[in-house]
Amino acid sequence: MAKQDRAVRTRRNILSAAATVFEERGYQAATITDILRTAGVTKGALYFHFQSKAELAYGVMDAQGRRMGSVPQRACRMQELADTVLLQTYRLQHDPLVRAGVRLAMDQQATELNRGAFFKDWSVGTTDLLEAAKTQGELLPHVVPAETAELLVGAYAGVHSMSQAVSSYADLDHRTSVLLRHFLPNVVLSSVLTTIDLSVDRGATVFAEVESKITDAYEEPQQDSA
Amino acid sequence: MAKQDRAVRTRRNILSAAATVFEERGYQAATITDILRTAGVTKGALYFHFQSKAELAYGVMDAQGRRMGSVPQRACRMQELADTVLLQTYRLQHDPLVRAGVRLAMDQQATELNRGAFFKDWSVGTTDLLEAAKTQGELLPHVVPAETAELLVGAYAGVHSMSQAVSSYADLDHRTSVLLRHFLPNVVLSSVLTTIDLSVDRGATVFAEVESKITDAYEEPQQDSA
Q1: Which residues of A touch B148 (CB under 8 A)?
Q2: Domains (ranges, CATH) in chain A?
């Protein structure tokens, strides 16, 4: 048990170091040596958890993804979708692991990684939410959930990149709000729209709500109990 | 005169090689040696036109920008905006120089370049068009041109990145159409909306229209006549 705790701590330590190095240097220029130095672990410890640079990158992206999807189910599914987006913005502004995961997905030079799969994963989660919203009659009749979901994922990725380039994420909350205000009226029934909370502190509120429930994002997925 | 022609040809040749190398390797990993080899010019010829890798990147981005802004003024300014976006999609699918310019602007590892300035340039052009559309009463009253322009630029950049990651731009025309169909109804008066042509072949039609009028994108900006 103590041994497993130590392994979990080491894994977390390595992923956190990898996130820092990937964010600073980009996938292509980052080396396992940089990550070892930043994590302060032995080569053996690192290779016990991750076999390659690509595995480290997938580890960071996967941890990012698990941090993202933790808004509890809402009675209004479109509020749940808005909360997911606002929470992601809050995390991008505050959490280096989330930032590194998204930057890897946007890293055009990370040709070794299947970046398309990450866009697809995000789209699938968003499509599911839109399908659920459609089923309970929250959406305008013309909406095709998969199409709208892919647009939202792509548009958000770009708004995030632009915010990173022009303000190092400082204006991302404003840009996210502009995106949602342009996007939702064309997707959601007016009667539902008036109930959706998009206030400026919503991201922080949702973060406080879910923080206590976060499963440790650095842990190995589907880990068996010892 | 013949001498100047040769200089223009050499400059074009170098920018075209730089575009290829930046697109393949990314800004960080690209070297002037690669670009020299691809262009097949001497070091002296390259340094006569460009002093550094950053200057080469700005040359590519600038040429991209000049290719982009060439839709003639339309009676309906929102048609002009839609045409600019559809033309850009057509060019991204067909022109390596345009692709390289946009990829440099999205290259997170090109920390040496002022990438924010390029997002701002695109936003300024888009804001101008939206201001003009507002002045002639094409827009819904709540629209703030600068805010909507920045959103469109950011969202388009993301849709483009996602298309590149999942389909190497093959689905960019469909994604662009989904973006415009979600975006325009919340910005443009319904009566104007019904007149806007977003048909699938619109990008190709606009390209054919403007092609003959393209000033040579590879030429030096504000070049004095000899």
Answers
A1: 178, 182
A2: 2-52 (1.10.10.60), 63-211 (1.10.357.10)
Task: Tell me the pLDDT tens digit for each residue of A129-170.
Answer: 999 999 999 999 999 999 999 999 999 999 998 998 889 899
- Rounded Cα–Cα distance for residues B151 and B158 (Å): 11
CA-atom Rg of chain A in angstroms: 19
pLDDT tens digits for A40-83? 999 999 999 999 999 999 898 888 766 655 799 999 999 999 99
Contacts of A158 in chain B (CB under 8 A): 154-161
Question: Is the CB of residue B153 less than 8 Å from the CB of residue B123?
Answer: yes
Distance (Å) from the C-alpha of residue B107 to the closest C-alpha of chain A? Answer: 7
Q: Is the dihedral of CA B201, B205, B211, B214 positive or negative?
A: negative
**Contact partners, residue B85, CB within 8 Å, separation at least 6:** B152, B156, B176, B179, B180
Neighbours of A221 (CB within 10 A): 9
Instruction: Decide if B178 and A151 are in contact by the 8 Å CB cutoff.
Output: yes
Distance in Å, alpha carbon of B155 to nearest chain A alpha carbon: 4
Contact B151 A187 (CB under 8 A): no
First to last CA, chain A: 7
C-beta atoms of A109 and B106 within 8 A? no
pLDDT digits (tens, 9 = 90+) for A81-132: 999 999 999 999 998 888 888 888 877 777 788 878 878 888 999 999 999 9
Length of chain A: 226
Contacts B160 to A, Cβ<8 Å: 158
Q: Hey, are the CB atoms on A163 and B154 less than 8 Å from each other?
A: yes
Asked if A155's CB is within 8 angstroms of B155's CB, the reply is: yes
* pLDDT attached to residue A214: 58
**Which residues of chain A does B190 touch, with a Cβ-Cβ cutoff of 8 Å?**
none
What is the widest separation between alpha-carbon atoms in chain B? 59
- Sign (positive/negative) of CA torsion A146, A147, A151, A157? positive
Distance from CA of B31 to the nearest CA of A (A): 14
State residue B139 phi and psi, 5-degree precision.
Answer: -105, 155
Residue A204 to residue A94: CA distance in whole angstroms? 10
* CB atoms B119 and A162 under 8 Å: yes
